[in-house]
């Protein structure tokens, strides 16, 4: 050790004996060992000052050095993307572009329905009143106890399918094309009497599945008079006053049943009124309703025959469609001409209306086919 | 020895991070928290639990609900209240409670069973311990009765072992295949245990229209003899009802051993509703919708309902059903009246 110390020129001056020489030697070697004693002392002080300054600033530098621009940029972009997604998928915005199930009652639905029926439906003052009130009351009622079940009865061509189409359009913009509106035609969807058990199962599964997706579903059953008696019994549970059935609530759904059953009875009542000289608009719902309910129930062809639907009074409203008179047929023709964009020629109008057949044989007031086949006749008279 | 020393040397930095005090404290707090969270009294306010054995039903609340919501059924109210309170205050019942509710349509059978279910399980029909079976929906095909029998037995057994206080409601008993109900007869009997599961605390409710015409006849007889409706006693109806339902091929209980073995605890008759009860229903519906009660509208809606028998016209054909629909028609008048009242 003594030999090493004596090797360095500065060591001769700071040598403090054998014991502490090792430590002193090490110190001298660290400070670089150049210059005089005073310079060496100054250097020491400056070095320690710098070191102290560096140490003090180090905590401030560490987090800043962690902020990597690329990852920070990605994080901000990700946050913005999720905010945008949340905004876009918010139902109100989303529902402008895609079709949504009707969650909250839209006040416009009832008003649109009223206006459509006033404008497009001819000669059915009873239907106007009942359907609008029924649908409006049902949609407004947040606490409905059972689904709305309407039964539309009447002569052919009087507007039953038309009204169901208008109702569908007022609730769902796409109307019958909507994926929440389901139309069943008895002769098409349930043709074979021997497969009735299969139809029952399928129908129940279909209704259950669709109502669990969208509680405000609309089901239209056409040609009820052709439906197998007893098939409708399979959906009776859904129309009843239950709160929940297997976890699904059916209380917001709407069921519409269309049929020709009871048409003779309605015509009888209308004819009575006409024969007694009373106006058509005098016919009240109560005049027809009671007579209708019993006759539909007992008619073997009605599809409701001895069915529990009427037994349990699960049909909320029986809506009668009166047969169309001559003046209503003319209105139909006029609307058809206008919709095709032709000029309305009163002469042709009268001729077309006269061509339709009317009943009963003596009085000849009501059109046999209602407003059907009018457009076919139109093609014949307007040639192009 | 060197290998062990080397291993210890490797673990030493990790061990150095485990401060014993803080780790011990963390474990202690975590286990205490778990213990607290899984304790039923805390846990059950968030998730639905099966009611414990010691829980008693609130008799006064049930009585008040029955009095305010159920109209015109003095017999049903009395019987059900006594039956349910007696059953729930009995620490060890000998058999499950079996009620059979009979009556005309729209008189309140489903409604009463709903109120009962809500008192046993607060979530009512939505509770996972309350099960509703509809004959036309759940057991539709006659040729599959064997499958239904087995499924029904398994379902009941499984659910009662999960929660002994389960409630089973069978609706449309008159449409159920005779003999399907025989499948659950063993559960209703006086056994202490069946295959390790005790059914003694469960409640079974059967709803049907069978016997409705018999009840109507009896009520009509009372009316024609000038006696008041409230004077009809259970003993006037019960024996006639039991035999009538037993012999009626459509009752679903036809020749079933349920009545044979007297496994039905109570036959609860529902009397047909009169004019004044229909009006009460209408008023309740109007209040529920927030309209002011206008007697004119109440009278108008009540007049639209049909009544039987043809001459006397005292009892409503549909009970209180379709009242809502008829109210919709008069709704605009009702709204105007409400607005006028201010």
The total count of helices of chain A amounts to: 18
| Oligomeric description of these chains | heterodimer
What is the count of helical runs of chain B?
Answer: 16
**What share of the residues of chain A does DSSP label as strand, in percent?**
5-15%
Q: What's the architecture of the largest domain in chain A, going by CATH?
A: 3-Layer(aba) Sandwich
Number of strands of chain A: 7
Rounded to the nearest angstrom, the radius of gyration of chain B is 28 Å
Residues in helices of chain A, as a percent range:
40-55%
Could you say which overall geometry of chain A the principal axes of the C-alpha atoms support? elongated
- Record the strand order, biggest sheet of chain B: 2-3-4-1-5
Mean pLDDT of chain A: 78
Reported for the largest beta sheet of chain B, the result is: 5 strands, parallel
Task: Give me the side-by-side strand order of the main sheet of chain A.
Answer: 2-3-4-1-5
Global geometry of chain B: elongated
Structural class of chain B: alpha/beta
Region (Disordered) (chain A): 1-40
Membrane topology (chain A): Peripheral membrane protein
Domain Torsin-1A C-terminal (chain A): 324-381
Catalytic activity (chain A): ATP + H2O = ADP + phosphate + H(+)
Can you walk through the features of this model?
The complex is a heterodimer of chains A (384) and B (342). Chain A is built from 18 helices and seven strands. Chain A has helices at 2-7, 11-14, 18-30, 37-66, 69-88, 91-94, 107-120, 125-140, 160-171, 186-189, 196-213, 236-239, 263-275, 285-298, 308-311, 326-340, 346-355, 374-381, and strands at 148-154, 181-185, 218-222, 254-259, 317-321, 358-359, 366-367. In chain A, β6 (358-359) and β7 form a beta hairpin. In chain A, 31% of the residues are buried. Mean pLDDT of chain A is 78; it is low at 1-35. Chain B has 342 residues and is of the alpha/beta class. The longest helix of chain B has 18 residues, at 20-37. In chain B, 35% of the residues are buried. The model of chain B has no long low-confidence stretch (mean pLDDT 83). Chain A binds chain B through residues 130, 133-134, 136-138, 141, 143-146, 197, 200-201, 204, 233-234, 236-237, 241-245, 286, 290, 311-313, 316-317, and chain B through 105-106, 110, 114, 124-126, 132, 134, 136-137, 140-141, 288-289, 304, 306, 317-318, 321-322, 324-325, 327-329, 331-332. Chain B: Belongs to the ClpA/ClpB family. Torsin subfamily. Chain B: Residues 273-328 form the Torsin-1A C-terminal domain. Chain B: ATP binds at residues 103-110. Chain B: It is found in: Endomembrane system; Endoplasmic reticulum lumen; Nucleus.
């Amino acid at each position: 050790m003594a030999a090493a110390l004596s090797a360095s020129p500065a060591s001769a001056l700071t040598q403090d004996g054998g014991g502490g020489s090792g430590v002193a030697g090490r110190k001298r070697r660290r400070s670089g060992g150049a210059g005089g004693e005073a310079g060496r002392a100054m250097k020491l002080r400056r070095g320690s000052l710098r070191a102290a300054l560096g140490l003090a600033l180090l905590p401030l530098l560490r987090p800043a050095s962690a902020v990597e621009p690329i990852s920070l940029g990605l994080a901000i972009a990700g946050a913005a993307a999720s905010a945008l997604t949340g905004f876009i998928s918010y139902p109100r915005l989303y529902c402008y572009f895609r079709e949504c199930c009707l969650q909250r009652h839209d006040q416009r639905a009832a008003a649109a329905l009223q206006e459509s029926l006033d404008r497009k439906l001819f000669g059915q003052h009873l239907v106007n009143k009942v359907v609008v009130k029924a649908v409006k009351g049902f949609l407004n009622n947040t606490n409905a106890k059972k689904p709305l079940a309407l039964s539309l009865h009447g002569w052919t061509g009087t507007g039953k399918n038309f009204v169901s189409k208008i109702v569908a359009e007022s609730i769902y913009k796409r109307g019958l094309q909507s994926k929440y509106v389901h139309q069943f035609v008895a002769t098409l969807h349930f043709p074979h009497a021997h497969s009735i058990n299969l139809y029952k199962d399928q129908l129940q599964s279909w209704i259950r599945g669709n109502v669990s997706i969208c509680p405000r579903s609309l089901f239209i059953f056409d040609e009820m008079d052709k439906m197998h008696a007893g098939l409708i019994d399979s959906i009776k549970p859904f129309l009843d006053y239950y709160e929940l059935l297997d976890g699904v609530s059916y209380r917001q759904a709407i069921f519409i049943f269309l049929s020709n059953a009871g048409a003779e009875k309605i015509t009888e009542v209308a004819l009575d009124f006409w024969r007694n000289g009373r106006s058509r608009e005098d016919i009240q719902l109560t005049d027809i309703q009671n007579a209708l309910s019993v006759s539909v129930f007992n008619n073997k062809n009605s599809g409701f025959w001895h069915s529990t639907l009427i037994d349990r009074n699960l049909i909320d409203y029986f809506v009668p469609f009166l047969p169309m008179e001559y003046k209503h047929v003319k209105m139909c023709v006029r609307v058809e001409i206008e919709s095709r964009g032709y000029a309305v020629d009163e002469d042709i109008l009268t001729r077309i209306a006269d061509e339709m057949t009317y009943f009963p044989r003596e009085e000849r007031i009501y059109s046999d086919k209602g407003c059907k086949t009018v457009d076919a006749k139109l093609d014949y008279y307007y040639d192009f | 020895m060197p290998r062990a020393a080397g291993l210890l040397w490797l673990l030493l930095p990790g061990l150095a991070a485990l401060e014993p005090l803080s780790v011990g404290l963390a474990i202690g707090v975590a286990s205490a928290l778990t213990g607290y969270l899984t304790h039923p009294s805390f846990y059950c306010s968030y998730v639905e639990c099966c009611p414990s054995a010691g829980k008693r039903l609130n008799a006064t609340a049930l009585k008040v609900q029955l009095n305010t919501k159920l109209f015109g059924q003095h017999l049903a109210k009395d019987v059900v209240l006594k039956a349910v309170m007696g059953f729930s205050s009995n620490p060890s019942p000998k058999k499950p409670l079996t009620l059979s509710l009979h009556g005309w349509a729209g008189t309140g059978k489903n409604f009463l069973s709903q109120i009962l279910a809500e008192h046993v399980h607060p979530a009512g029909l939505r509770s996972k311990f309350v099960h509703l079976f509809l004959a036309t929906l759940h057991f539709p095909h006659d040729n599959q009765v064997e499958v239904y029998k087995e499924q029904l037995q398994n379902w009941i057994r499984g659910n009662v072992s999960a929660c002994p206080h389960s409630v089973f409601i069978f609706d449309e008993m008159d449409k159920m295949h005779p003999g399907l109900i025989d499948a659950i007869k063993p559960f209703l009997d006086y056994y202490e245990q069946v295959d390790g599961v005790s059914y003694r605390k469960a409640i079974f409710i059967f709803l049907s229209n069978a016997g409705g015409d018999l009840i109507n006849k009896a009520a009509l007889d009372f009316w024609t003899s000038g006696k008041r409706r409230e004077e009809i006693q259970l003993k006037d109806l019960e024996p006639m009802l039991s035999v009538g339902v037993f012999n009626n091929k459509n009752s679903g209980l036809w020749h079933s051993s349920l009545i044979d073995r007297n496994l039905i605890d109570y036959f609860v008759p529902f009397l047909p509703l009169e004019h004044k009860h229909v009006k009460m229903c209408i008023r309740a519906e109007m209040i529920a919708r927030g309209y002011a009660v206008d007697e004119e509208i109440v009278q108008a809606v009540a007049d639209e309902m049909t009544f039987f028998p043809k001459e006397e016209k005292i009892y409503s054909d549909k009970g209180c059903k379709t009242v809502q629909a008829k109210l919709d028609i008069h709704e605009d008048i009702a709204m105007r009246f409400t607005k006028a009242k201010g």
